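Let's practice the habit of predicting before peeking. Look at the sequence and jot down your guess about where helices and strands might fall. Then scroll down.
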Amino acid sequence: MSDSLERLYHAVVAAKDLDPSVSRTARLFQRGPSKMAKKLAEEAIEVVIDAVNGDADAVVRESADLLYNLSVLWVAAGVRPEDVWAEMDRRERTQGIAEKLPKGLSKTFDSAPATPAAAEPSATKSPIAKPAVPEAVARRPIVAQGGRLKKRR
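Done guessing? Here is the structure:
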């Protein structure tokens, strides 16, 4: 999966300096980060609407558009896919692949060992102890009920 996103990212890099009259990508770069962000948000909303409506084929199409626009914004912001993969790896080590700490806490828990054996001191590790990741973080999960997305209170 990341290979496809890497190829997309490199295609965006290659297209950003093309003629804006023939390249949608170059046109987005010409219009700047505000337009790029607006397009990304539009595509995200379209994915959500199609998902709520149960249209899987449309979710696939709009997700491809979303990933394209995300790649454009990454290039404009100087973010490389490997930067995102590294952050995902860090999060997996600290709170699990499918979990995310609330914004205020995510920087506090920089990295925690994945296993108790990894917690043992070694000559190559920093002598500064990192804080333990909390076992449970209070949150209100988003759930689908009756075809609509709702926040659980």
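How did you do? Residues 111-145 have pLDDT under 50 and may be disordered.
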